[in-house]
Prior knowledge:
By secondary structure, the protein is mainly β. It has one domain (26-201): Jelly Rolls, CATH 2.60.120. It is built from one helix and twelve strands. Strands 1, 3, 4, 6, 9, 10 and 12 form a seven-stranded antiparallel beta sheet that branches. The protein has a five-stranded antiparallel beta sheet with strand order 2-5-11-7-8, with no helix packed on it. The longest helix has 8 residues, at 194-201. 36% of the residues are buried. Bound molecules: calcium ion (2 copies). Residues 29-31, 67, 69-70, 72-73, 175-176 line the site of one calcium ion. One calcium ion (CA) is lined by residues 42-44, 46, 48-49, 88-89.
Amino acid sequence: MFSDINMRCQEPTTVNCGSRAIPDGYMCDFETTAEPDCFLENSKSDIFDWTRKTGSTGSSNTGPSSAYHGRFYTYIETSSPRKLGDNAILESKATFQERLYCLYLFYHMHGSHVGNLTIKTKEIFNNPVVLKQLSGEQGNKWKKMSSLNVRLNGYTKILIEATRGSSYEGDISIDLVMLLPRKVSGQRANNFSSLITSIFQNNVK
Ligand SMILES: [Ca+2]
Ligand SMILES: [Ca+2]
């Protein structure tokens, strides 16, 4: 049905959408608790919540020492009382247009007992569909997740779920989550907008 679903995500469109900084798209940088462009909130259909954080996560040998972009990121704290398998979900609160979007995010998964980071979509009464899952130690650095094509509509939610592994050395962090509309036509351009490009270039560490 969507023959282009596995193609790399493309340049975002530049539709005028008023005061929003990201034309027709969304970005969560976690710099404040109320970012107008952010589309995510903590779910109640899980065990615990993601936590905004600046600096290191308080446990040694796990978590980042700083945000990927800006000063703040969000993460799951896996120290007590958390236990194996406890999950925390960020879910979308936006009502999406019916179209193909591209999801980008940066993650930090460092520690001896890191659990899973799972990206899903869910359409009302249907079971969630797993788009991507990362498991275990991924190195002590921020990494860019490969961009994901996501078919959304007004009834779809995006779920970003982190699950605790077998010890406190399992903090999972994310920063700079971007959801941008893909061009509908089959244009081959792989360039990001100047905004996105500048964000990436300013964060080479
Ligand atoms: Ca940030
Ligand atoms: Ca929660």
